[in-house]
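User: I'm writing a short report section on ligand binding and want a predicted complex to refer to. Could you take this sequence and zinc ion and write out the structure as tokens? A short remark afterwards would be nice.
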Amino acid sequence: MFKVCIDPGHGGSDRSNRGPSCYVEADGVLAISKYLKEELESTGQFQAILTRDRDKTLTLTERGRIAARNKVDLFISQHTNAGPKGAGGTEVYYSVDIPGDRELAAKLSAAVAQVLGIQDRGAKTSESTRYPGEDYYTVIDKAQDGGVPHVLLIESAFHSNPDEERLLLQDENLRKIAQAQAKVICEFFGVQYSQQANVYIVQSGDTLWGIAQKFKTTVEEIVKLNSISNPSLIHPGQELIVGSIEVDKVQPAPQPENGDEKVRELQHILNMLHITDTNGKVLVEDGLYGPATTSAVKKFQGIAGIQVDGSAGPQTMGVIKQILAMPVTKRGSKGAVVRYIQFRVGVGIDGIFGPKTEAIVKKFQSANGLVADGIVGSKTWKELIG
Ligand SMILES: [Zn+2]
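Assistant: Sure. The structure tokens for the complex follow:
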């Protein structure tokens, strides 16, 4: 487990950094920080600590010390920039005392600039003129002096630039910034990262158009992700994969041949896992990798929070294997297996086994005549699978 400290800059009595219209840096960077925490923790490999999780005053020294005290592997302070008219782009500062972070800083800068479509100003470092050998930025200096091995400060965009302020005012872009950062951080620590796929359960009265609006996506995207044949036919209780997954960039894994025994086995497993096709139908175990099987695989991938491409590649088979191993899962557990359990017991899918999931698991256990201890052990697993 890696520990990361995310520091949303400013806040509390320090809310004066603003864009020309209505963007407030303290709020924008708090949103980015919360998203980054979510993205990193969704991998099950990170614990992310926020220096503040609300609008609160914190000194720069306190921020650096929080990171040092928690002995984190990485500290990253989140900011947006201000500068002369026309200035724009992303830049990332690293500590003068940790020159090895230059590459990580450069990658972060490039990734964020790319998702926003703005200039990549690259990796920078800034030495104090008063104290040569020390960092100009207090927050970097304190974290580094406190022994944090990797210390960064990111300026994701220029809020002083009206075009970039417009980008920062869209919540969707703040999420994209966090995802771009998460991807680079995961790569740095050798952790596999895939953007979270959201699963939405259709409520009565919903339309695809309304759902698309709600998740800031398009009807076409939802239709494509879920292999829906008739967009006017959705029904309450149907699970839909929503959210912006870069479908086109996914390299589909080689699919087993049609009529294959392996496909039949996959269909059998999906049936055991209660993963139905997009119309809620149990799969026919015919060994043919057609639209129904593809849609069931996509649904499973959405539930597991892995890349949704409809092909049963190594990542998908890996998660299936994890589930079939029926690991003891309880309060505090995280990741794809928890997501699957949440899907089966019918609680919001976030991959974190918290009090709400525990309560629903207990209910599920009682309903199935098991000891309601909230721990998913072999007996509960046997009710969930098969
Ligand atoms: Zn700032």
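A remark for your report: Residues 244-254 have pLDDT under 50 and may be disordered. Strands lie at 2-8, 46-50, 74-81, 90-94, 120-124, 151-158, 198-201, 239-242.
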